[in-house]
Amino acid sequence: MEQTSVQKLARVLRVLVVITFVCNLIVLYFVPTLAAMQAENLWDGQMMERVLSGRLGFWLSFSLHAWHPVVWLMAITAEEFYWPVLSLFLLFSGVCTAVILWQGKRVLDTILIGDPFTLANAANLKRAAVCCFVISGAALVRLIWGIATYQSILPLLTYNALFVPIFLMGGLLFMVMSALFRQAAELKAENDLTI
User: Fold this and answer.
1) Mean pLDDT confidence for 87-96
2) Rounded to an integer, what distance in angstroms lies between the CA atom of residue 138 and that of residue 133?
3) Positive or negative CA dihedral for 185, 190, 193, 195?
4) 121 vs 112: CA distance, rounded Å
5) Could you tell me what percentage of the chain is helix, strand and coil, using 3-state DSSP and rounding each to the nearest 5?
């Protein structure tokens, strides 16, 4: 059976989604290290010099230990809240993003087999919507935390302020698509019974 153009596009999108999903999981491991490097201002344009001088080796070894709770407790007791809070937010958002990507892969799988209008797809899109709402809520909490901690409105100029409406609108879009897929699945089931 020859594939339709929609199925060909779905196959390409599925490959891209799987690649993005795997990259997301790999990057999640390095989030605490990258957040700590950001807190120490190591991204100031002299990264190659540090790599060549061997000082980056400390951070690569830190990535092995960054998941240990003692490292997090030491940072918090030293009143270094920036990188633990950033790490938790990025890890939380990264896990939600991985769930969204996995739900997208599941929807694309049903398109590839030629049966996209199922109740399972409606549930997949609803899960993606919930994850979008969770990311939006976490960004709002981090934004409020930043405003309270720094006693400034400057956190309103960060990506956190942008995450709130973007993921809120994404969640609403997924909810609408979920309702459409559910309606289409019910109509398809009704038509299958009448024929």
Assistant:
1) 91
2) 9
3) negative
4) 13
5) 85, 0, 15
Q: How far apart are CA 95 and CA 22, in angstroms?
A: 12
User: 118 exposed, middle or buried (CB, 10 Å; 0-12, 13-18, 19+)?
Assistant: middle
The pTM assigned to this predicted structure is 0.81
CA 51 to chain centre: 29
Specify the DSSP element, H or E, that contains 75.
helix 69-77
Instruction: Name the token pair of 125.
Output: 């899109």
Say how many C-beta atoms besides its own lie within 10 A of residue 146's C-beta: 20
Sign of CA dihedral 185, 190, 191, 195: positive
Residue 79 burial by CB count (10 A; 0-12/13-18/19+): exposed, middle or buried?
Answer: exposed
**Amino acid at residue number 76:** I
Report the distance separating Cα 135 and Cα 121, nearest Å.
Answer: 21
Tell me, what amino acid is at 140? L
Q: Give per-residue pLDDT as tens, 152-193.
A: 898 888 888 999 999 999 999 999 999 999 999 999 888 888
Instruction: Let me know the angle formed at the C-alpha of 74 by 36 and 57, rounded to the nearest 5 degrees.
Output: 40
CA 120 to chain centre: 22
Token pair for 167: 């993921």
Give the separation between CA 63 and CA 34, rounded to whole angstroms: 8
